[in-house]
Amino acid sequence: MQTIIAQSTSTPQLTNGASKGSSFHGKALKAASGRRCDVARSALKVSASAEKAKIAVLGASGYTGSEIVRLLAVHPSMEVSHLTAFSNAGKKFDTVYPQHRNLKGLPVLIKDDEVDYTDVDAVFCCLPHGTTQKIVAGLPADTKVVDLSADFRLRDPEMYKKWYGGPHAAVDLQKEVVYGLPELNREAVKKARVVANPGCYPTSVQLPLVPLLQAGLIKTEDIIIDAKSGVSGAGRSAKVNLLYSEIAEGMNSYGVGSHRHMPEIEQELSVAAGSDVHISFTPHLMPMARGMQSSIYVKLEGGATAADLRATLQAKYENEPFVQVLDEGEVPHTRFVRGSNMCSMAVFEDALPGRAIVLSCIDNLVKGASGQALQNMNLLLGFSETEGLMQQAMYP
User: Fold this and answer.
1) 57-90 pLDDT, tens digit each
2) Of 84, 174, 226, 256, which has the fewest Cβ atoms less than 10 A away?
């Protein structure tokens, strides 16, 4: 195998008991007896080889798949072994995404059912909602998976059926899936086999609100979320409403009162609060390629102040590499997180007594999708959580 040395912007350190210099040999990670060795897979035993973990990206021709490939290009411990697509199957990846022409040795796009998982250590599943459950359920039982669709985010199969219009096709598997917001669920992610990567809007909302609900600083009712996203959040399909002349020089609401991320947000906020939480959520499409801001309006509990909320978030995320809680008076901007895995947030006192305003900005394709997926995969495979993710924001 040809070894490609990738320069990492962070010092690679393995976690979960792993040691620096660990390597993969595809399915050689199985015990010699043939039994599945989840323990060996999580411990990543040291070997003299520099071979990397073999990664399959299913649905690589979409924006999130392409973003996974971009991030893996500088990952010191993972390499792409398979890329799949539907209509683009048979094409070279750099003909679909010319910005990747400098990445030599990428495999040709193939169909999902053409992947040989013999030497695949882990899978990023970037397929459309409603197609992932059967595919993930059919993967080898020792293959780690991070699913970027919504197919495993809702724990209740009936809730999934209600919001996504069809029955859940992998109910038994759903029971073992871990919801992967690392800053809030890190230890569970480390032990998982299948991780449901959170949606973009839910990520931008949960990172600020979950600690505040857990601390009892805000009320569980009358939470209003006014969220705005770049057009890439709608995917790469050719749609009239996404044409330049339709989206440029304006903005519009969509999914008003019925966006599919509502039940996901309510599910996780309810867990944090220990009681049912219902939200008023309206997303908007903005004339920019990427970026997301959630402006969140909350009622304060028990005499809490905006300063209390800020202090709680700063204490919670003080040592988190991908969350910034700004000082009083500072405003987060989508442009300052563009292309990075950062979430930048701030808290302001509302002009209305007893209320506060929380602002949260992410890149919808990175922390809202592929970057967070890589963060989860690092945890699954025992690598440092920051590997491949320490790029600075692209500005201007």
Assistant:
1) 999 999 999 999 999 999 999 999 999 999 999 9
2) 256
